[in-house]
Amino acid sequence: MNAHPTDDCDAWFRVKVQEALEDRRPTVPHADVMRELRELIGRKQEEGGLAPTLVS
After folding, report:
1. Which among 29, 34, 36, 50 could disulfide-bond with 44, CB atoms 3.0 to 4.6 Å apart, if both were Cys?
2. What is the number of domains present in the chain?
């Protein structure tokens, strides 16, 4: 274990950044992700699984 908890967080963060940089999967445009999330939120709200939100 490192001397300070923030050292652990820093090490974890650096590993995650490196993994992301090495990831060769195709990216997904932001607009597509947001559209899918709005659809998911809408479905969950209709099912009663989420309270109404300000997401539009």
Report:
1. 50
2. 1
